[in-house]
C-alpha cells in the first residue's frame, strides 16, 4: 500500500463520487445453481461472486467429526476476474481467505446438528474489484442458509479503511491498492460477535474505532439485503 496517490476529490468526495461513509450498491440472489443444496450470487459494486453449497457425509470416514459438521470454504478467483490474469490454483492469499471465511461461517452454523457432515462452500469470484473476501462471506452465509443448514445467525460483513488520510467505508479498488489501511470485518448481527477482523496497513486507535463504528452502522442494511434475498426466493416458490 502506498500513500502518495490522490484518492479524494477537491469537493471532499471520493474518486468514484461516493461520500466517506457510502457503500457501493449490493444485490444478492439465491437459488442460482440448480444442482447445489444452496447457492447465492452477489454483486457488490463491480465484484461478481457466485457461491454453491453442498452438504454431505464427510469422506474419508477418519476425517469426520462424530459430534459436529466440518465447514470447508474454498475461495477461487477466475483467471480473468482481475486486470492482470490471476494464475490458476491456490496461493497464500486464496488459502488465507478460504480459512477466514470457513472459520467465520463455522461460528454461525449450529455444527452439532450435523454430526459427521461436511459443508462444502465453493466460492467463485467472476469479477474482483476490492472487498471480495467480505462479499464472498456475506454471500456464503446466504447460500448456507439456502441449503437449509441450521444457523444461529447470518454472518454479515463490510470493509472500511484509510484513503488520503480519511477513514472511508467499503474501499474501492484504488483505495484498497493505494490507501493506507484496509480493515475487513464480519459479525453475527444478533449478538454483535465479531467473527472476522483483519487489518492491513496503519491506523491509530481513534481511526480504528471510527472505521469499526462506520462498519457497524452499515451492517443492518446489508443484513436486510441478505434476508430479502432468502425471503424472495421462498415467496416466489410458495406462490407457484
Ligand atoms: N487482486 C488482484 N489480483 C490478485 C489478488 C487481488 O487484482 O491476485 C485485486 C482484486 O480486485 C481484489 C483486490 O485486489 O479484490 C484486493 O485484494 P485483497 O487481498 O485486499 O482482498 P479483498 O479486498 O478482495 O478481500
UniProtKB/TrEMBL annotation:
It comes from the Archaea. Catalytic component of the exosome, which is a complex involved in RNA degradation. Has 3'->5' exoribonuclease activity. Can also synthesize heteromeric RNA-tails. Component of the archaeal exosome complex. Forms a hexameric ring-like arrangement composed of 3 Rrp41-Rrp42 heterodimers. The hexameric ring associates with a trimer of Rrp4 and/or Csl4 subunits. Keywords: Cytoplasm, Exonuclease, Exosome, Hydrolase, Nuclease. It comes from Ferroplasma acidiphilum. This is Exosome complex exonuclease Rrp41. It is found in: Cytoplasm. The lineage of its organism: Archaea, Methanobacteriati, Thermoplasmatota, Thermoplasmata, Thermoplasmatales. InterPro entries: ExoRNase_PH_dom1, ExoRNase_PH_dom2, ExoRNase_PH_dom2_sf, PNPase/RNase_PH_dom_sf, Ribosomal_Su5_D2-typ_SF, RNase_PH, Rrp41.
Amino acid at each position: 500500500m502506498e500513500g502518495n496517490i490522490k484518492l479524494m476529490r477537491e469537493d471532499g468526495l471520493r474518486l468514484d463520487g461516493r461520500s466517506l461513509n457510502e457503500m457501493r450498491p449490493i444485490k444478492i440472489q439465491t437459488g442460482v445453481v440448480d444442482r447445489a443444496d444452496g447457492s447465492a450470487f452477489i454483486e457488490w459494486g463491480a465484484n461478481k461472486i457466485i457461491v454453491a453449497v453442498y452438504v454431505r457425509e464427510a469422506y474419508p470416514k477418519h476425517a469426520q467429526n462424530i459430534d459436529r459438521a466440518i465447514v470447508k470454504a474454498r475461495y477461487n478467483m477466475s483467471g480473468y476476474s482481475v486486470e492482470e490474469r490471476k494464475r490458476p490454483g491456490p496461493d497464500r492469499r486464496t488459502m488465507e481467505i478460504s480459512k477466514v471465511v470457513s472459520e467465520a461461517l463455522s461460528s454461525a452454523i449450529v455444527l452439532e446438528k450435523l454430526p459427521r457432515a461436511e459443508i462444502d462452500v465453493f466460492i467463485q469470484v467472476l469479477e474482483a474489484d476490492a472487498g471480495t473476501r467480505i462479499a464472498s462471506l456475506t454471500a456464503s452465509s446466504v447460500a448456507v442458509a439456502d441449503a437449509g443448514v441450521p444457523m444461529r445467525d447470518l454472518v454479515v460483513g463490510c470493509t472500511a479503511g484509510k484513503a488520503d488520510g480519511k477513514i472511508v467505508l467499503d474501499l474501492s479498488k484504488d483505495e484498497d491498492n493505494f490507501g493506507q489501511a484496509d480493515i475487513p470485518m464480519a459479525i453475527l448481527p444478533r449478538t454483535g460477535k465479531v467473527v472476522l477482523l483483519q487489518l492491513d496497513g496503519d491506523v491509530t486507535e481513534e481511526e480504528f474505532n471510527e472505521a469499526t463504528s462506520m462498519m457497524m452502522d452499515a451492517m443492518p442494511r446489508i443484513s436486510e439485503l441478505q434476508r430479502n434475498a432468502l425471503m424472495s426466493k421462498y415467496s416466489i416458490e410458495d406462490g407457484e
